[in-house]
Each structure stands twice: as structure tokens, then as C-alpha cells.
Amino acid sequence: MHRFLLPLSVVASLFAVAPVAAQSTPTTGLPSRTITVSAGVDVKAVPDRAIVQLGVQTRASTAQAAMAQNNDAMAKVVAALKQLGIPDNNLQTSSINLSPVYNNPPPQNPPLEPQLIGFDASNTVTAELTDLTKVGPAIDAAVAAGANQIQSISFSVADEDPYRLLALQQAGAKAKAKAQALATGLGVTLGDVDAAIEGSFQVIPIYSGGGATPTASASVPVLPGQIVLHTYVQVRFTLK
Hints:
By secondary structure, the protein is α+β, with helices and mostly antiparallel strands.
């Protein structure tokens, strides 16, 4: 039986080539020919909800006295809001604070240490109103009952889903139109949708109050105006 022996140089070349042939070219998993575009859309809506934050701040020589005065004033504010028909589950305590108050002595040498002169107590209640005609009267009633702070007021819609779906539909159509325009400009043919990502959904107030009317002529003029619901999408298309 005869054995055929390969030259040593040939054997060495085979071992050198084998590892290279076993390697594969890394892939990203993405189609080789795609176009990716993004599109944002604003949808306007008339608000049907209002969130008002009203507060009471009191000062007294002792912490107990400051809190006692504050509790009494806030109880009257809450009672006044309930008299307007605002239910209990639409009233929520937002914050309660108690802090010492020090004087600010004039600069001199040697400097004087600040002295404790009293305590500040504050309480904030958040009221959700489903009847926007009551926003002005609610503020008036709260102030008359003892509220001395208006922290904030904001508007929203109770059901955002219809506006979200409309915004997504319009954003998808806008993204397709942008992709088609880009493909035409590049001289290529647009294919199917390969991937789509929904961006964040935001509610943005419009402060102009266009077209709105005051809630009540005899109370604080409050203009609900409009709000903008914004969304955007990112869509990747294949190319034919």
C-alpha cells in the first residue's frame, strides 16, 4: 500500500486558509436598501378638564399656632369648594409645609446671629373641575374663604385616546409622503414599510386662548383656550 505525502509547504497553506474561510461577514440585520424618515403632528383640542392648585400660608410665633391657623383657613377653603359642587374625590392635598422663619439682621461687626421670629405653615389643595364655567368662581370662593396663594392652573382633555389615534394616523401619512418625496429625489422606488416606531405623546397648552370666552363675567376671567396634543413617528421603508 502506497502512501502519498503532500509537500510541507502545501499543508501549511491549507491550515492558513481554513480559518479565513470559516469566518462570516458580520451583518446588522437591517435591509441593505432602506429609507428612514420621521414625522411629527400636532392635533388641537378644546379642553374639558381644569386642574387648579390653591394654597393657604400662615405665620405665627409658634409652630403649633401657625399650623392651627392654617388648618382652620384650609378647612374653610375646602368647604367653599365643596359648596360649588366639587366632589370629594376631585379634591386632593398636594403639599403641607412647616418651616421656621429667621430675621435678617443688618451687617455689623461683630455680626449678629439670625433670630427665630416665627413659623410659616402652608397647605396646598388641588381641585379638578369637570365644569370649566366653575374655574373662576372656584378661585373667587377659595380666596374669599382664606386662600392666599394660587399655585397653578392647567387644562386637559379627559379622554386623550381619540386625539392620540388621529395624531398617529396623520403622522404615518406624513412619514409616507416624506419618504416618497425623498425616494423620488434620489431616483429610487419606494417599497414597503420595514419598521415603525411611535414617539412620545405630549400635551402642550396654548396660552393665547384663541376663540375662548371667560368662564364668568363676575369672577376671575379664566380662558381655557386650546391645547395641542403632539406625537411623532419614525418609519423605515425598503427600496425596490
